[in-house]
């Protein structure tokens, strides 16, 4: 057996490097060989994953060290290549939604022990997202967002280009600054949802998020009624707000209080959702930014194997 480690050392403001050293120490204590592949640019994790498919032996294992975005790239790549290779995650990102949802109490050693000594991985629900216009396929573990939340995420990513923001203690402040910069451009969007046998059209949607776990992003639990292992989608709808209302909404999110009423947070009965977007809009999937032109997204619950 050999463990192939795909790591984003810059995740969590450099936390990835610290977690990687810990992983090396644990694997060495078990006398398990390993190979480390470090990402060097955006989307590199997916490139590494694609190259890794032909190198793996049946007894080998794949360990991801990074945040939700790194995991998203790797799982999406394996899924698109029809190579459903089980993975384990050592969390090193800013929010770590996947870790909080599925393995919140596990230490790094316990996660690695599961990876090494569990014969059968666990099948977990994930969101298969198909872009009808481009034919692109994505797999998200936690959330898919459109509109203002994706705008803030993109602005926070831009800020990371400055070295001052690349420290773990600066993460929350960076998102608050990104929020402040985004408040000057509060744009609503048109969107139509098809779910549970009905259509819902809105022309004043500020942001929307489709969730597979209780976590909205950044480790913030939003839908406490949604269990992580359910094959069920949750839909957040936030219509036009004033800047002051939006600040209040965000303050509740950061304090991990219930920020929306139940009419704005729907628990769908059918594990399928269609999202029709007639204009250009920003999108984020598990913290990874996408620019979307007019299209229809088909989102469905499926499953993927993990060592948890």
TrEMBL record:
Q: Which UniProt keywords apply?
A: ATP-binding, Kinase, Lipid biosynthesis, Lipid metabolism, Nucleotide-binding, Phospholipid biosynthesis, Phospholipid metabolism, Transferase
Gene Ontology terms for molecular function: ATP binding; kinase activity
Can you give the residue ranges of the DAGKc domain? 1-133
Q: Which Gene3D superfamilies match?
A: 2.60.200.40, Probable inorganic polyphosphate/atp-NAD kinase, domain 1
Q: Which cofactor does it need?
A: Mg(2+)
User: Quick check: keyword Lipid biosynthesis in the entry?
Assistant: yes
Q: A GO BP term, please? A: phospholipid biosynthetic process
Family the UniProt entry places it in = Belongs to the diacylglycerol/lipid kinase family.
Q: Per its record, how is this protein called by name?
A: DAGKc domain-containing protein
Its organism's taxonomic lineage begins at: Bacteria, Bacillati, Bacillota, Bacilli, Lactobacillales
